[in-house]
């Protein structure tokens, strides 16, 4: 995974939430090229040696979904409604659906289609095909749900929708993206999500990275990354830069 963190779906999930609430944040670089994620300092932040890790004053956490919910709760964002138990539970239902049903096939497809070539290995078409079949079964359920209400948890947008952004972004930009045409409500939902400013800001991370770190040389744009995917060696050579994945709140937010 060296050099892969700039494409991190887990980091993107958190960044979407930071952008949604308008938080000020500092992006701290974790240098994958020297395996900084395996150093004791980073293991102390994330015991699995993964990104992202997140710090709010002396509170340090990991796991992108938990980090995202922490941010949304702290800002009392409507994206994570907490006042009404049933509404809150519907958000949890669809977050669990994403984690347990949606992510398994889509993450396997994206791993094969996107990440394997970056690591110099060849995608396994059989794996992709098998997971596409599973993914279609999941999409059928989503289509039915989204024909009943505009968003997954109901007629209001929530973190349950936004959490789908990172993998879906990759998928929609892949050669299989046209699959969404067969699911009109799902397609409309995705286009609606994509039109949110947090996504264009986050596409992915560009604005803040450029602002926060003058050494940042790469604009992260998932579709661009995808289009630029070329024969393995060339891609491997390109993937050699640092990324900013340990996210730390600035003082202002700590006082919220
Ligand atoms: N469940 C974790 C997954 C984190 C994760 O898989 N991070 C990847 C990048 S997307 C990573 O750090 N990989 C490096 C490794 O596992 O060595 C989360 O959502 O935060």
Automatic annotation (TrEMBL):
InterPro entries: Glutathione-S-Trfase_C-like (IPR010987), Glutathione-S-Trfase_C_sf (IPR036282), Glutathione_S-Trfase (IPR040079), Glutathione_S-Trfase_N (IPR004045), GST_C (IPR004046), GST_Phi_C (IPR034347), Thioredoxin-like_sf (IPR036249). It catalyses: RX + glutathione = an S-substituted glutathione + a halide anion + H(+). Keywords: Transferase. The keyword Ion transport does not apply. The keyword Glycoprotein does not apply. One of its GO terms (biological process) is response to herbicide. Gene3D superfamilies: 1.20.1050.10, Glutaredoxin. GO terms for cellular component: cytoplasm. Its EC number is 2.5.1.18. Pfam families: GST_C, GST_N. Residues 84-215 form the GST C-terminal domain. It is an enzyme of class 2 (transferase). One of its GO terms (molecular function) is glutathione transferase activity. Residues 1-79 form the GST N-terminal domain. Belongs to the GST superfamily. Phi family. PANTHER family: GLUTATHIONE S-TRANSFERASE GSTF1-RELATED, GLUTATHIONE S-TRANSFERASE RHO. This is glutathione transferase.
């Amino acid at each position: 995974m060296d050099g892969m963190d700039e494409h991190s779906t887990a980091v993107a999930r958190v960044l979407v939430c930071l952008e949604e609430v308008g938080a000020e944040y500092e992006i701290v670089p974790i240098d994958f090229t020297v395996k900084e994620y395996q150093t004791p300092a980073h293991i102390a932040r994330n015991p699995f040696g993964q990104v992202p890790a997140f710090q709010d004053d002396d509170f340090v956490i990991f796991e992108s979904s938990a980090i995202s919910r922490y941010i949304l709760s702290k800002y009392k964002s409507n994206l994570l409604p907490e006042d009404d138990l049933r509404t809150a539970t519907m958000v949890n239902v669809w977050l669990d659906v994403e984690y347990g049903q949606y992510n398994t096939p889509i993450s396997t497809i994206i791993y094969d289609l996107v990440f394997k070539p970056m690591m110099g290995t060849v995608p396994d078409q059989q794996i992709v095909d098998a997971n596409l079949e599973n993914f279609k079964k999941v999409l059928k359920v989503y289509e039915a749900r989204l024909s009943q209400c505009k968003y997954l948890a109901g007629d209001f947008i929530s973190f349950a929708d936004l959490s789908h952004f990172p993998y879906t972004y990759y998928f929609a930009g892949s050669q299989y993206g046209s699959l969404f045409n067969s699911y009109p409500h799902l397609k409309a939902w995705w286009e609606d999500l994509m039109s949110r400013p947090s996504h264009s800001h986050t596409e992915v991370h560009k604005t803040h990275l450029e602002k926060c770190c003058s050494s940042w040389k790469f604009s992260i744009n998932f579709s661009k990354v995808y289009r630029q995917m070329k024969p393995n060696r060339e891609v491997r050579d390109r993937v050699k830069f640092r990324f900013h994945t340990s996210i730390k709140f600035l003082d202002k937010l700590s006082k919220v």
